[in-house]
Every structure is written in C-alpha cells, then in structure tokens.
Amino acid sequence: MGRRKQGYWGDYSGPRRHAEGIRAQAQRGQFGKTWWAGRWLQALEPLINEGRLARGRSYARSGQVTKLDADKNGVVARVQGSHPTPYKVSIKFKQLSQPDWEQVDQVMASEAIYAAKLLSGEMPAEIENAFAAAGMTLFPAIEQDLVTSCSCPDWANPCKHVAAVYYLLGERFDADPFLMFLLRGRTREEVASALRAHRGASADASVIAEPPPEAEVPLLDGSAESFWRSPQGGAARALSFDQPLLDALPVKSLGPPPFVDDERAFSATMTHLYRSISARARNLALGDTNAESRE
Fold first, then answer.
1. pLDDT tens, 1-19?
2. Sheet with 146-150: strands ordered across
3. Is the pLDDT reported for residue 40 higher than 70?
4. In degrees rounded to 5, what are phi and psi of residue 76?
5. Dihedral over alpha carbons 136, 138, 141, 145 (to 10 degrees)
6. Band of the pLDDT at 207, cuts 50, 70, 90?
C-alpha cells in the first residue's frame, strides 16, 4: 500500500516502462567518464539516501527519464514512475551572486593555467581550488545548495526520481563541463569574457607609464661571413624547454571544428600530436640524433 502525498495514493508495484526514455550510457559500473562528472556524483552521495540513489541509478539505466532540460534557471525533467503520467522533477542550484563571481574571476585570471585551459574550452582539474580560494564551492556541498521537488507520492525529498535525473545530469557533465558553471549562473561565453577582461586589465596595469629609452644598436659591418655570428661581448642567451601550459592551444582556442562529430576525440588527438611534435623538436634541439628513429 502506498504512502499518501499531495492528495493521492502512489502505486508501489513498480514503474511503467517508457520505450522512448533517455537511457543512461553507463549500463553497468560507474557513472561518468570524466573527473568532473565523477566529482558531481561524489558530491551528491552525502546528500541523498543510499537506497534512493540505487533506485535512481536503476531508473536512469532503464530509460525512465523521458525529458531533461538544463539552463541558468535549473533543471526540469519528467520521470516515468508507476503513475500513468510522468512525474515532474525540478532541481534548482544556488547561484553565485555577481560579487561572488567577481572574486572567482580574479582568482582564475591570476593563474595562467586556469585561464589557458578555460579559454581553450577545457576544465582544469584544479578548478575547485580557485573557487575555494574565493570562499566559494563549485559543486554542491550542503543541502541548501540544491532545491529539489518531484510530483510523486514519495514523502522523501530527494526521491528516486530526482536521483535518476542526478545520474543523467552527470552524463551531461561528461559532454559539457561548463554545464556546472551554467547552473551556477554563468554561461561558457560569460566565463571566457570575464577572464579576458581580467587578464587584459592585469596586462594594462603592468605597463610602465614611461618606457625606458631605446639602447643604441650597433650597425652591421655588412660582411656576409659575420652576419650569422653572435656579436662580440653579447650576453649569453638561456634556452628554455619548458612544456607549454596547454597542449594544442592554437587549435583549441579556435573552438570545436564543424567537421568532427566527436569533439573530445579530436581534442585528444591534437593534444597527442602537439606533444609528439614538442618532444621531437626538443630532442633535436638538444642534439639527440636518435630522436627521429625512436618516434
């Protein structure tokens, strides 16, 4: 016998199967392929009853979620349960205020690795440190960070229908790491624009008001034999072979190419190619004659 909620009795005989539901890609094992999807699910574990999480996983895998839309206003979904009509699920995230985002922007812009990766469309693994340094959290940390509702008769909130949406939302994070930013109140374009503005302001502040006078450059003697030689008494030049902050930045900064179906696979391929090119160039510059034969 079901529990009464919102004026009607729920049928606990089992959910009705929906042929056109959104079936989870992870039909067994762990949900989420990327670290940020895994971190999202990890953040939820202390906030939801384990039994409802387990039933939510089952619902997500069997295609009980029939609709899932996410934007700045939160998540709206429909989940087919035992009732003939799918239940309405709503998930709202606590959004950061404009002053909060300003603090986060300053921290992210101050670290070159954050700016380089975010501007190229990648999510830095250390991104939570930036939010922590600004006194914020990116992923939900307490129950008040999420406001959920479901039209089902279950007295618990979050229920298994909300949990099912959570798991499918994790797979959305796999495809779009900036979705968490969106749910917190910022689009990917707004994040990039704020970073460029802060990075530009930092560069402008470092410009010296009155540049030093240019040093006199000695004229060339016109001899072809000495043209490629270092000038007498010239300062020694230190060579640096440091790895770039981000591989394939010239390509990634252009955004996803229209001619590929799998953006992540393309990005991984370009990263591998750029690393190989960098390694070969470094070995050849150091005089390693066997570099080409090993690659």
1. 333 344 444 445 567 766 6
2. 65-71, 74-79, 87-93, 146-150
3. yes
4. -120, 130
5. 90
6. very low
